[in-house]
Structures
1.
Amino acid sequence: MAGDIYEDRIMILSQDKTHAHRIEKPSASATVDNPLCGDRVTIDLRLENNRVVEASHHVRGCALCAASATALCANAKDEDIATLIATGDQTTAMLKDGGAGPKGKFEDFAAFGPVAGYKSRHSCVLLPFDALKKALGARGT
Amino acid sequence: MSFDPAAIRAEFPILQREVRGHPLHYLDNAATTQMPHAVLNAVHDHETKHRANVLRGVHTLAEESTEAYEQARGHVARFLSARSEEVIFTSGTTSAINLVAHSLGNTFAEGDEVIVSDLEHHSNIVPWQMLRDRKGIVLKFLPVTNEGRIDLDALDALLTARTRLVSLVHVSNVTGAELDVRAVAEKIHAVGAKLMLDGAQRMAHGPFDLPTMGADFYAFSGHKMYAPNGIGVLWARQEILEDLPPFQGGGEMILAVTREKTTFAAIPHRFEAGTPPIAQAVGLGAAVRWIESLDQSRAESHLKALTGRTLDGLATLDKGRGLIQMLGPSGTQARMPVVSFSVNGAHPHDICQMLDGFGVALRGGHHCAQILMDCFDLTGTTRASLAVYNTTEDVDALLTGLDQAISRLT
């Protein structure tokens, strides 16, 4: 069974709805679709001086996508934009190139390490970061 | 004729392999069926002994290759009770529909109408939307019933004197629902329109008399009927094809080319520009002969039994909790062996991923039917689709794995 990618931490994150809501008048917001599966992720950010005051998500997607969105939004508070982008890059490297994965506050993403062996699911984990980058890009940051 | 599922299974080498430590339980046949030795050997034999381009060649291999290619056309024609001239080889269902959308569609005028349905695969929606954008036609949609069938009661209200074509799915790739073709053909023809059917999901289930069914165009793919990828067919009535302009231009479809003009070849070659998929066509010819060798009645009974076992098993798993929502007819009548369902709280891709861990190959997602998903307010479903080589063990592996997946994911 492919239970290795549905370990307890992933399931807890995927079912955590604390940050699953929309932010009124966000500083940055974007929605992205995964054309392969139709999944959709929206990331809302409230920013002050390029630091995150609040982050939330709205996910219509699989457990991996929901868990990734939670891991991102739950730990984004007080972080600067560069750190969030770097976390996405480290997660991408972990999945695609065997990198170590994010450390410290974002080490929840290490739980996605086993997904590296399932290429068709990489985009599920990375979709929230795609939404994040799109939101920040639209904001002109 | 015989029908022994175990013996049939043994004819498919890929079904002997294991996946993640389990026997392969391949239940993704609506996406692609596997190929038996008869097809694999036919392709291998052609490529190793007769490989050459078709038509015009005078050397031995070219003649043999041409003969094999045209024999394959003949086998397909016999399977459909049609004429060889009416069988156009394409790369698949999508290219066959696009051929009609261009060749026939280019004869449409602004304001002419095409009717499709909410049950269609994207391949029978997008070409007509593109035609709408090119020609200014009006595109109308038949709704679906709660059982995932096309709502034929709505047809009368949509048909008008401007209707030029109704293009519908013969068997749904999501719900398995089979269209009652005869119930719609007469009404469609009565307003002077033509009927096209997407037969991709029908063809694996035995030969039938296509010309008397009432369709004017019929499209299907080889890879969903035990044949290779890259080959498909557009069938159309000879008198329609004779009047239809070609879609693509190039070699193989001409009689003569001068600086001033081109004289096109007769049908079916007029619609087969460029070097065709020759070995794939030979494989398709072998596949239809292989299907014909089966006891059709027992094959149908076998698949109905497996479909029923799947439906009953899902109901048992649900235990009356309302956790599993079926998308499709409740029974096995007028349906092919395709079973789609959603599980509250569990995404189809997660279910499919976990089932892969048991060697069970399913498909999850929108199945290229996003309009249908929107109709039922779903992002996707999990789909099990059966073929003649499937057994009760395959269905039971699905149900056992699904039980565990539901426990983990919900």
Note: The longest strand of chain A covers residues 51-60.
2.
Amino acid sequence: MLLHILNRSPASSRVPLDTLRAMGDNDWLLLIEDGVYGAVGPLADEFTSIQGRVFALKEDLVSRGLENRHDATIELVDMDGFVALTEQATQTVSWY
Amino acid sequence: MSDTTDNSMLVVLRHAPHGSSWLREGLDVALVGAALGKKVHLLFLGDGVLALATGQQHGPLGQKGTHPTLDMLEMYDIDMILVDGKALTQRGLTADDLQLPVSLIDDATLPEIFARHSSIYNF
Amino acid sequence: MNYALLVQGAPYSQQAAHSALRFAHALIARGHTLGTIFFYHDGVYNASRLATPPQDEPHLVEAWRRLHEDHGTSLLVCIAAALRRGIIDEREARRHGKAGYAVESPFELTGLGQLLDVHSNHDRLVTFSP
């Protein structure tokens, strides 16, 4: 399982599309930095094809005032949770 | 792709030439890997496919560009050059428009390529 | 596990370096080792000892140095990426006849090949890019 780390919003970049194309059926996606804009609906719909495998970094939502506005299908993790995801993945791939 | 082994490195190039240094600095990682004796596979993805378009030139200030580097890949034994077929089509290009012979990759194959390499550098 | 980070964003321009620092502290807090941070692309600006942020902002260069002092983390800076951006150490300054320098220990200018070694001799490499 690969952990893909994405810091681009689907509203401003095509990078999220390439990230999704590269993801295998068991891979996970973590949204960080400006990537967390994609955790808020309706932009979150971009990730419906990988529902249940999408995480967003809580502190980046909080600093952007979005903590309570993220889509319910996306799981929030703190920095400790971010590290835990990298432990479970065999490798991480960062998209920017 | 039968010679694809787990310990070969995958360098993914996603940026077009001239607009930023990502393409050049990504290629540098590939060349260094090859110089150190590692088996290097290149994947041109998204805008990265524009790196292969023929007819590129130096910039007006003498910026080198990356097209001369691509001509050196063979010398470095980098012969696995994978290209995102969809990105190529989106940009009005075909394999005939590219400066090197490449292997076109479809969407179904992309995740496999990422899964089978144990060290991935995404530029 | 032994972690390495690849940092490719300049501090104070993009969030990448700040995210990397947060991740560094979190992985150490979970009991892992942070063996190496490799600075590449605009990440080399993280190595400038001349950085002088306002006192009420995080001082990233100091924070990297403290990781080295407290946890033994190697701070490696790609020499090719650094030199062309003016991020040189005393030795390179002398060699090129420059009056000042930006990089000092514990940051080390090193070849790009080191990045590949770092990738193969650490359990995880996590990249933070602008």
Note: The two ends of chain C are 26 Å apart (CA to CA).
3.
Amino acid sequence: MKVQYINPFLQATTGLFKDYLGMDLVPEKPYINTDPTRLGDVSAIIGLAGETTGAVVLSFTRDSAIAIVSKFAQRKYAALGNEVIDGVGELVNIIAGNAKKDLHDFKIMISLPGVVTGSDYRIHWPEGIPVVCIPFKSNFGDFSVNVSMRDII
Amino acid sequence: MRILIVDDSAVMRRIHKNTLLENGIDESSLIEAKDGEEALKIAIEEDITLFLVDWNMPRLNGLNFVKEIRGYSKYSSTPMIMITSEAAKYNVIEAIQAGVTNYVVKPIQGNILWEKIKKYL
């Protein structure tokens, strides 16, 4: 997976959290995630199809999901209820949709988001394509954006 | 005035609703639908003056909803703002060809969205 395909997701995430939500956001060094179970308590998944295939997973700890969706929805949530789940799905939708505008090599369609919760789940990523994890530190808690996308060549 | 907010995300519907309420729109003017199919049923029964429509939704997505609704003579020129995360240029072109009046990429601050909405009220 080409490095230049990571930047649009990095920029879309920064645009959403830092510019729109006004959160202090520090991206850490991206790495190849070789362990599909290495995700947080709440993960929102969106599939990519069209001229490439892949998936984007936005993953939070339980507390960071509640805090970040509270900020996004302008409402204080105390538990991981339906609206928080709905909110994390919307966040990954915004990141994937915004990243598309800078992925000039492909015409991509994005799926509806799905959300999984719990401590013991496994994402079945597209086979044979590396998963790049971009971890972020924020004043509302940590989260990561995980991207796996097939090169067009 | 009847404004129909169409979005499968309850959180997004509430964010849009708050923007309208904060700018003096009466709650009784607002109707919500969670997908294009539900929106179509409402639109047929009501006289909607402005549509705020998401793109990615189950059952009937926003793009196909716009195409369908433009086929009704009473909605041939009703303002329709698409509010979506679909930010690629080809998406904007496709939506305009389908008949949207304005295209807004999420996330958008409430005051900027309101500037776009108020032109049609």
Note: Residues 33 and 131 of chain A are 5 Å apart (CA to CA).
4.
Amino acid sequence: MINRILLYAVLSVCAAIMLTPMIWLLAAAFKGNEDLFSYLFFSPRPTLHNFHKLFESIPFMRYMVNSFFVSGIVVMLQLFFSSLGGFALAKYEFRGKKYVMLLMLITMLIPGQVLMAPLYELLFKLRLLDTYTGLVSPWAVSVFGMFLFSQSMKQIPQSLLEAGRLDGLSEFGIFWNLVLPVCRPMIGAFCLISFMGSWNNFLWPQIVLNSQEMYTLPVGLSQLTGLLSNEYGALMAGTLLAVLPVGVLFFLLQREFISGLTAGAVKG
Amino acid sequence: MSKRISRWHIFRHTSAPYLFIAPFIIMFAIFYLYPLIKSLILAFYITVGPKSKIFVGFDNFRFMFHDPDFYRAVRNTVLYALGSVFVQLPVSLGLAILLNRSKYPGRNFFRFSFFSPYMFGSVFVAVLFGVLFVPHFGLVNKLVAFFYSVDIKWLSNPKLVLPALILTALWLYAGLNMIYFLAALQSVPKELYEAARVDGANALHQFLHVTWPGIKPVAVFVIMMSTIGSFQLFELAWVMLDSSPGPDNAGLTIIMYLYQSGFVSGDLGYASAIGWVLTCGLGIISFFQMKVTGALSK
């Protein structure tokens, strides 16, 4: 009994520490300037002033649309390339397979920033700097995604594939009509992980984009810290709106998300 | 006729994997392998933006190892990484162990609340914590004031920049690593604990002889991944310190050093050299981590 009380006490303190910044953010977004620091959390006079100020200062909604567009494209590209590649690795024997696996392992140990300079030079030569194509194409393939799909597709029974072949399906038909539907939970998990990665990506858009109207949310919002250094309220309103889409997805797909994250680590 | 069809089938079957993996490999070659090799070449050049470059041999590396800013960046990054591994991971493991006990009401709520900070991207966390760490008015200092009446200047005191970053990272990543540990703990067979209890093993013995061997592969993975991740610290520090390396370069990290030389000063060659020094350093560290934990012997 005492054990149990102790357990709940420790857990509650930890949960409070984790949740407090989020609750403060929610409260701060609706507090006026004069209330921001005078009330610890919620003020009795909620206001939308911060949001007005935010929309006046930067084209916030434009950034949000940009972010949705860029992240959506990245998710679709990664899903296509990774699931197809993962299927090949999981269900076929072919020459060079070992090397592909080895290559994938090595990339996990190489920090991606080593590629930034040469990628910048490459995009310059291809005249893709300051374009969405340039922003998206280096992220079109995800080694993590291919690994995830190959792990989950290994569990699909070979008999399902054989049945498809007997029915006269082409190999791609088997992938499209039989394998993908079975992998639906993993697809959901992967989409969320990949969407979050792209939504929160900062360094690459910061390097590639020059035109302000093309900025994604992290880049746009980080500019705001300098622009409105004393308007903390507007800054908090922007942060709240920026994390909201991912937060909603996250809340709805929590279980799939966790299973996706751990699939690679625990089984592999 | 039927023979020809079956041969066609066999051909389709054997060519399929190559066709399926080709799009991935082609994109990977253009946007990963080519830049990777290119960066190895660029590391021996000085460039002015992407347009002109001069071959300088090992000068980039020579300059780097004589630049006090580089040592500052390495020192900060290493301290931050140590903070992540030795503060964050024990907390994550502790939380996971608490959650792994038999089912009790509210368990899912706790799991969700520990994990939920991870939905914030690091830029947004940086903006939020930049405000939470404001001197005097900020929430952190107000909470500190309950216990101690001091006003801590977190982000303008060079000595406190790294602790502030480590605390922020603790909040952001503790739950993520907890998820990995929790998954590993759940894969340890319950019967082993029963057996240990019958043998009279106390909690510490159970942890050392049952839990730790069971979760070790995942623990090694988590330690390696958080080390690699910590060495890539950039936007959390950069945005929290108002797009700067902080007071007295207290928040200068290796990637920040790379970003500034490559994309503020425009020397892509030097940036590549930094990238390779980081890669080699991480390679050595990962190797030692595997060696010490015995992950290589299996």
Note: Chain A has one domain: 24-267.
